[in-house]
Amino acid sequence: MKKIISSDINRLDRLPPGQRWVEKPIIYDIKSVPEIDLTSFRLKIFGMVENELIISFDDLKKLEPIELTADFHCVTGWSVKNVIWKGVQTKELAKICKPKESAKYVLVHCREGYATNFPLKYLLEEDSIFAWEMNSMPIPKSHGYPLRIVIPKLYAWKSAKYVESIELVEHDTPGFWEERGYHMRGDPWLEERYG
Ligand SMILES: Nc1nc2c(c(=O)[nH]1)N[C@H]1C(S)=C(S)[C@@H](COP(=O)(O)O)O[C@H]1N2
Ligand SMILES: [Mo]
């Protein structure tokens, strides 16, 4: 299995500005945790793509798996070291879908109604993945079962749990927190928390 270490782990200044280390991620949910049945689960990638993709959980697991080690930074100030995720690189799925020239941003849609957005560039990063395991276990229900997008280069609110579909769009479209004043990109090294 290919292993990826998020580049931020190798930085001398490993903790982004204004953050503090904690032991475990604190669970944040805007709504109650959805019940998701694996057999009927489908991940969909749509919008500004040449090939729309609808893929089952079994088929997703047939793609080349990746183990990712990354730090996890919440905008409220806590960070967790060395979270280990297993899944498939988002760029592998992007390759299948072929983003159109006009695709510039991503809007992630989740089962319970949560959404988040970021520039397309982050979908193509080496360390961005769709994860189904967290610390060598299927992702616990409260942490995003069955599938979560993990974008280590951005604050944790962009790592959406219970992900159901990814929409490639031309114009940057705010998600749940972005509509409430959080940053449209959210790079922790630049402290892009709000605005
Ligand atoms: N679907 C969904 N994903 C989400 C959230 C949410 O409310 N719903 N909260 C975000 C926020 S604000 C943070 S800090 C992280 C927390 O991850 P955890 O709940 O696994 O600790 O999940 C992010 N992903
Ligand atoms: Mo958060």
Automatic annotation (TrEMBL):
CDD domains: arch_bact_SO_family_Moco (cd02109). Gene3D superfamilies: Oxidoreductase, molybdopterin-binding domain. It comes from the Bacteria. Residues 32-177 form the Oxidoreductase molybdopterin-binding domain. Pfam families: Oxidored_molyb. This is Oxidoreductase molybdopterin binding protein. It comes from Thermodesulfobium narugense DSM 14796.
